[in-house]
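Fig. S4 source data, part A: sequence.
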Amino acid sequence: MLNDEEFAALFDAYRPRVYAYAVSRCGRRLAEEVVSETFVVVWRRRDVIPAKAPLPWLLGVAHNVIRELYRDELRQAALDEALRVWTEELERDVADQVAERATAMKALSTLSDADKEVLTLVAWHGLTSAQAAAVVGSSRSAFFVRLHRARRRLEAAMNSVTAAGPRPAFVPEEEK
């Protein structure tokens, strides 16, 4: 069991990663509450925290907190709003890198909640397939299949967003 100092060190080391996970799952508006609830659960269960690799376990706790507290509609609405705002902010920039990121964010916002989670666990949070599988409660092979399918759907969505192209803000008089 962790003592107070060890728990404080764990909190300091992993709070930013748990917060980032919470933001990617339910948006910034709810992320702090999710982090707080996650570490309350972790404090209560500090005798079962895996010493070797605590991050997947912590993200698994956060996953369960999100599922219990916010269920589908509220969480999905907050995440979609955050992705929409991020996309709008990105569209204002003109650099090619930012445009590519905006395309990826638009495409990501069209995917299902399950696809978003699978992709962000690996791409944003840097988890291995085995660690991410532990977070979502599936086998490694099942997670790998989900990840492969989510990547294909993301690629198709990105192609769709790219094909649609930017829409002009106005049409000049001579073109009307």
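Fig. S4 source data, part B ends here. Residues 54-91 form the longest helix (38 residues).
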